[in-house]
Design goal:
The radius of gyration is 29 Å and the shape is elongated. The protein starts with a strand and ends with a strand. The chain is of the alpha+beta class and 309 residues long. Helix 3 packs antiparallel against helix 5 and helix 6 packs antiparallel against helix 7. It contains 7 helices and 21 strands.
Length: 309
């Protein structure tokens, strides 16, 4: 979503002193003019200095802050109050809209944070908006639902706090290095390999405690369970291919899988090796499977097969 939206950050000055540009101008703006029914950005009010630097500076200028808007359009600025159940909960801080159509997808609301602090920005889908008026947004939410709305923070801030939280939760430096963190539009992905289940649990709990995380994907492989995953994958391959007479066992060490046993053919031996390598977390497969009827030394020295990472 991050790459398909425009982010318009509304200044708190209100609707004055700017140049009215047709369409969407992302970045720091004074306000937007929306079609109230379609929830689409029609004009953007841009500070004069910034408007002069835009490509084709005057090509899309249609007026100033004093220009009268067509019927059915409302002005939304950083001074617009947001109401839940008749009570003001904050002001609009950002508008997110689709890059191609200009349709608003989300509004962000910042609560008052006091004299020296700024409150959190909450992310609300446009579907949560019941009514749009000049300087006023009414939400179709209860106070409890509004309080559960996710908090917005830039990905870089989330990633910074997450690395610190994982460092505090996992004391083993090697384990911390093995866990890879990616944050994209508030969605956290944890990947890698750990030795034990409690290490995975520690990393997940660390991510859950970070403000601004709006979703999580856990792709951490536990070494203790890796042999079972490999055996399951190999057994599926045996059943799918109908390799009768195949007998094997798998054991792992530091992401290296060792396959031992007997298979009916060279094709079966290669197929089981590939299925083991396809398991997430497996780095190397050492194939000691013996083809039935061949001398034992034919099975040695043919590995290892390594995942290209």
């Amino acid at each position: 979503m991050l790459y398909t939206r425009h982010d318009l950050r509304l200044a708190s000055r209100g609707w004055y002193g700017g140049v009215l540009e047709e369409g969407v101008v992302p970045g720091d703006v004074l306000g937007v003019a929306l079609n109230a029914s379609a929830r689409q950005v029609i004009y953007t009010l841009v500070p004069r200095r910034r408007a002069a630097k835009l490509p084709g500076a005057s090509a899309h200028q249609t007026g100033t802050a004093r220009t009268e808007l067509p019927t059915g359009e409302v002005r939304l600025t950083g001074r617009a109050r947001v109401y839940v159940g008749g009570r003001a909960v904050g002001r609009v801080s950002r508008v997110w809209c689709d890059r191609l159509s200009g349709l608003v997808t989300h509004v962000l609301v910042r609560a008052g944070g006091g004299l020296f602090a700024r409150g959190h920005e909450r992310v609300l889908p446009i579907e949560a908006v019941a009514k749009l008026e000049d300087g006023r947004v009414t939400l179709a939410l209860s106070a409890a639902d509004y309080a559960r709305a996710p908090i917005y923070r830039p990905d870089a801030e989330i990633a910074r706090d997450l690395h610190l939280a994982i460092a505090l939760a996992l004391h083993d430096p090697r384990t911390r290095r093995d866990i890879k963190v990616r944050v994209e539009d508030g969605h956290v992905t944890l990947a890698g390999t750990v030795d034990a289940a409690e290490q995975q649990t520690g990393a997940v709990r660390a991510a859950e405690g970070i403000a601004g995380v709006r979703g999580m994907t856990v792709d951490i492989v536990i070494q203790e369970a890796l042999a079972d995953l490999v055996e399951h994958a190999v057994e599926n391959e045996i059943g799918h291919r109908g390799y009768t007479g195949a007998h094997f066992r798998a054991f792992t060490e530091h992401g290296i899988v060792y396959l031992e046993g007997t298979v009916p053919s060279d094709n079966a031996r290669a197929g089981l090796e590939r299925s083991a390598l396809g398991v997430t977390g497996v780095r190397v497969v050492v194939n000691n499977l013996h083809v039935d009827g061949e001398p034992p030394d034919r099975a040695d020295g043919t590995g290892p097969l390594t995942r290209n990472r």
